[in-house]
Amino acid sequence: NDVNKYAARSTWSNFRLYETARDPFLMNVFGNDITIPNVQNHLAYTNQRFDQDSRQQILSIADSGRSITATGNNWKYLDIAADDVFNVTKTTVLKYEFDLSSPIGEQHAICMLNKDYCEYLRLCVSASSFVLTRII
Asked: How far apart are CA 73 and CA 75, in angstroms?
């Protein structure tokens, strides 16, 4: 409000609207492969929308859809189709390979959530300060 609204000026140009084709993520769930579309949604830290996501970077999917690589401060999630949803219980096992490259970064986590925010990293497997922890 400290600007002269009659003198303000902006220029917008060269608009383009298009779809990008990204390889989907493939995950084996209870012996069945499911395809998860590569639509990367912003994940907030709490339901108050504390924003940490670096929107300049996206998750990279490789190895025929079986690997995800995160670079930078990515707080992203992929939606699993309603037909492929599963319940996480005390006997559910999440098995994966994890490779940490330099620079190490602050925190690395995989979360099984039913919401678009990650409050206190519940239902997450987290690697931080060289310690692998399970937070449930």
From this structure: 7
Between strands 76-77 and 60-62, the pairing is unpaired
How far is Cα 31 from Cα 90, in angstroms, rounded to an integer? 18
- DSSP β-bridge partners for residue 134: 125
Cross-strand bridge partners of residue 62: 67
Cis check: omega of the bond before 37, within 30 degrees of 0: no
Rounded to whole angstroms, the Cα distance separating 118 from 123 reads 9
Condensed to tens digits (0 to 9), the pLDDT of residues 45-81 reads 666 666 666 667 788 888 988 998 888 778 888 888 7
- What are the structure tokens assigned to 109, written together? 């986590």
- Strand pairing partners for 109? 126
Can you tell me whether residue 48 is helix, strand or coil? Answer: coil
Residue 26 and residue 34 in contact, taking contact as beta carbons nearer than 8 Å: yes
pLDDT of residue 47: 62
Mean pLDDT of the 98-127 span: 71
